[in-house]
User: Fold this.
Amino acid sequence: MSDITLVRQQPVQLTAEERAVLTRCIFGIVDGLGERGRKQWRRLWSNILRLEPGEMLEIKTHQQRIGWYHRKHMALEQTLFESQDRFEVFEGFRDWLKVGAGFCDWYPGPKGGVFPVPKSISYTKLEQGEMEKFHNDAIEFLRTEHAGKTLWKHLTVTGRIEMLETILASFGEW
Assistant:
């Protein structure tokens, strides 16, 4: 989810021709969905244009997740979990993957160190672009020697690479 803070700059005088172009761009290229959406879109722009110099407005956006992409990632996690030897609980595996991909927040520990807290990948907390970044970072992490050794300690380096790449290829991850 993106938070955008807008601030009104000094007034600008537009000619009638410039206003027509602005209106055509704002409402012609993108518009609200349905009658209600169109009214909301026009109200938003009306509010933006009525701001006084220095006045601010915050907008929150959310890009909807793509269902098939989410299902593909979840299936990949499940397949990896079922193929590995280290983790007995799926949530432990998922937390390890999130931390390895850097998809976590870091908090101060009780003795002065820091510890990672994995972030959520739920539909409501993570939009599509962020999900794609997490997925790509997870793939990159899985290809490290550390990840291979953690998941398949009994295999040789070559065996670990072959195991991972076979799984990734079955999901179209080259």
